[in-house]
Amino acid sequence: MKKTHIVLLLLVAGLMGTFVASITSTSRSVGFATAFADPGTEYKVSGTLVTEFPVEYNPLENTTLTKFHLQDKEGNVQEVWLQEAKPTGLERSESIDLYGKANDGHFHATEMLMKCPSKYNEQNHLVEDNA
Amino acid sequence: MEYLGEWIWAAYVGRLLVALAFAAALLAMVSFGRGNIALGRKAFVAHSLSTLGVIALIFVLFFGHRYEFQYIWKHLNNEMPMRFVLSAFWGGQEGGFLLWMFWHNVLALFILRRADAWQREVMTVLSAIEAFLGIMLLGIYFGDFQLGLDPFLLLREAPNNLGLPWTARADYLTSIPQFTDGQGLNPLLQNYWMTIHPPTLFLGFAACSIPFAYAVGALWRRDLTGWIRPVLPWAFFAVGILGAGILMGGAWAYEALSFGGFWAWDPVENSSLVPWMVLVAAAHLLLINRNRTKPTALFSTVYLSVLAFLLVLYSTFLTKSGVLGDTSVHSFVDSGILPQLLAYLLTFVAVAHLMLLEDTGSRKVYGGLALASLGVVALGHPALGLLAFLGVMGAAAVRAFRKEFRSDDAEDALWSREFWMFVGSLLLVLGAMHITWQTSIPVFNLFLEPFAPLLSWAGDATGWETFRALAQHDLAPGTDLDQTYHLVQVPLAVLIFLLMGLAQWLKYKNSDIRVVVSKLARALLAAAVVTGILLVTYQFKLHEVPRVALLFATLFAAFSNADYIVQMWKGKLDALGSPLAHVGFALTLFGAVISTAQKDVISQNRIGDISTLNEELNNSTDLLLMEGDTLPMGPYFVSYEKRRSEGIHVMFDMAYFERAPRPYKTGDIVVQEGMVWQALDDHEASPAFDDDVENHWNFLPFPTEAQTGRASRWVNGTPGEEVFRLAPRIQLNAQMGNAPEPDTKHFLTRDLYTHIKWGRVTPPETDEEGWLGGQSQAFAVGDSMFVGGVLMTIDSLRVIGDEERPARGLLDDDLALAACLGLRRGRTVEVHDPLYIVRGSTVVPDLYEAEGWGLRFRVEKFDPESESLEMTVWEHESVRRDFVVMQAVIFPQINWLWLGCLLMTLGSFLAVRFRIRQGARTRRHG
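Predict the joint structure of the above. Result:
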């Protein structure tokens, strides 16, 4: 057996390992229903901020806790406790991705990604308001 | 109708130049391809001049503030200082494409000037790439389909503005305020990093085209060895520049963005890292073959050179098409050019793979199959068709590998440099594949849709969540990104760095392993000693074994290569390139690993620990700072002095003081962790209370009121001399949302990185008398909340008795209820009782002011059953203090990272210089 074959075999093994590692270290992007049916497991939940509820952030009490309500893509609304200072621009966000798990009565998010409106959309509003 | 004040000529000239650039590139491609070098060169020069003309014209429009052009309007405004005009130029996709084209032209000029034996092939490929990039700027509409983004598009012609009433006004530019000023550049891009990072990165991308062009040329001529010498300097040039560009991106994130680090495994960052890794692998394979009379692993050499460029295209596709949208914070939004970016990518994938095949017959067969699979896409099954396409391409590569590249490879000796370089290169490719897999998850979700049943079957069969997730196309990257990537990347990196240290001392062909080991002994020993010192200094945990292994591996690689320099240098710069680049790369990783693994968030919050909240939620990484307060923070005391405005920034001035000793005297009483302690003797506080408790403090289980009255919180020091100031800031931007920007104090051995997590950018609104607040809120007995710096608790509710009525100004028949509020500020506690008065059948509003507290209350509603009430609370501005929430992180040893970057870039350029000189020598002698 040639050395290159041994190396190739090792690489194939490495590749398999990589593949399995990749497969096991992914999560799922789900709705609140799935997350709350399985509390304690990490999920990604995407949705939009529900503006009817206030965004609560009281740094005097806790500098790293923000509470708000999120409506997921299936239309369910849940209270979210985000373990972060209130992100700038939360109120104007277009969509929100949360990483975290369900926890008695609320979704406990450890990380959040926001998508803010693009300049392009802004421009539309501007021009329409003006016209 | 004629519009007033428009530079309509610029639109015509610009579009003409774009069309010219495209046509000339096409002509150059055809001419070079047919071997008409003279015409090809002329056409390419015409293309270069047109491209330069387009760029120059856009700059003229920027300097003229011509807001009638959409590109200018979107990326410039009147306030923006013109020193950011470069950032504004490449702030959009059109500018990005132009920058890319610009560098291709610069590089092509070198190729044309040298006019070596490969000019024809290389220029054909480069012209083709340029022609495709030219299409991206055409901006022609075929019905609804838009081909390219026109940089000279007039605002009134933009598809989303068509037909709006204002477009019919001849004087829209002057009469509508929105068009007298632009949207402005995203504030995140307004810094000097954005002036140097994109051009460097794009030069790196452009440089990747040259090895690709040579490799395709080699396939074209079927001369698989002749291209290796001329391409080597280019390959190392691309490695150096692309590496520098990526690291500058990291520096930008660290210095100007509040990500809290320099690398976040963001898809956009990854997509430039992956081509770099593949290119490094390709460059090393090229090097192996340069030093051999009988070539080896030619397929991998050619394929990786090609792949690096294809991955650049894939990266462009990922970041510019909008596919990533959900998973990346800084990708572009969908701009409608996804189909043509995909077409661009697929064309080059197809051309490169078909070129791998030697005989025209099989080229036709595979080409036909590829076309057929694209036909499936056109029929409305994009996922199926694209998968089939990739399958065909893979089959073509495999066939080429088995049939056309068949060579009786001489077996490399086990202890030869080339054998281990080859292994290292393959490991790099493996790492690149893993990153690509992770980054492409959104693409998988999109394209695997038709296979949902199969995938869910696979999910049920294996029990793997991933398959089920893919079946429902909701697969997402791991929730802890760092962990997801480190799981694979760290072990691979350990191996790669070990090889990097080893291979430098191995000779080509064969070497005596005992000699090599003896030479490596010093580096091994040094790495082991330093790792040991680090283990003692930083106290790594058990689960950090891979990390420590990586530290050891990077140290070994750095020492081994440094040792090589010391022993082999002999005053010649030529030999310096590769070991220096290796030292640099190893130090870069060393600095990155140690500064992130040992980062210390020193801004722990000590206020507000009365919260009854879930422990889990109290991660206390952010410090609340009241204006004027001086608080201990890590090795310093920090004081928030004031807020001030400076241009588009709101700056928060922070003064840092060194920690001076805090002496305690016998009998002093302190509170620590809710318990009361009395000092046994005169002493100076140690850094931690635990160190002092045994010898200096006596626990008071039942402190008297007098004792608690004079108790203060235990501190381990007092503010000493002011040592430096920082001003983290918030950048104001009405369009994009305010963005925090960090401020960092750099020391030789560490950085103090601070950024504002929350802060007011304007003073709050008050009424004429200076009261602010005034929203009514619901409370229940027992509730507490902070009003400014005062802790308010609803202690109880009580009915006002007959004898109290006169004193409170009530009538005899009034029904009154008092809400007893406990107010606490520091150690001052008072009870106040605003009233809820019912007179006859109406409620009499009663405004109650707590004197000396600067607070005002009015009970609005009262519900006796649930013992809850609704109350409005006002706060007076005289008592209100401004505060911010700040995060401060110490990154130790981060300067190794920057030093490593410099050495790596320097080393790459020395390697380029060496290869160019070597090439020149060979030409002279050969």
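Residues 65 and 121 of chain A are 31 Å apart (CA to CA).
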